[in-house]
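Sample entry (159 residues):
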Amino acid sequence: MRLLPYLAFLLPHLAIAAEPTGEIQAHVYILSRMYGIEEELIHAIVKTESNYDTKAIGKRYKERGLMQLRPTFFPKAKLDVASNLRMGVKYLAKVREICYPKYADAWFVCYNTGPYAKKLAKPTLHSYYRKVQYAKKEQAKAKIHARSIAQSEGMSLDP
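Predicted structure, serialized as tokens:
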């Protein structure tokens, strides 16, 4: 019986969504082509930031939505999928312009630290870098697993 109050406290804090909906996938597909950012990276950032919870609100800065946009910097940031992803990916593209020369393939760390933050000595050691890379690897594993299931079931992409 003592476990029940603990579970009642814990349940609201557990992530609701762990997989992207079709709507999220469609927006990410379009935005990745608009801004030239790989889909896998956008998905990994969304997974890291909000675990695909469209109603996620950050505790410290009250960041909002899938991309966890701070109201201080994005006062018009909403929780709806389309506008939150659009604003977040647009910001991500801006971050790439500013941070790519500094960090090469770890430029996306600036999405978390801010593009004008003090230069990191080794951005690949930053916890955000590791979290995003882990999310990308998990996506790749999930795709391989789904492909193997489809093949074992005799499914084909051919019409």
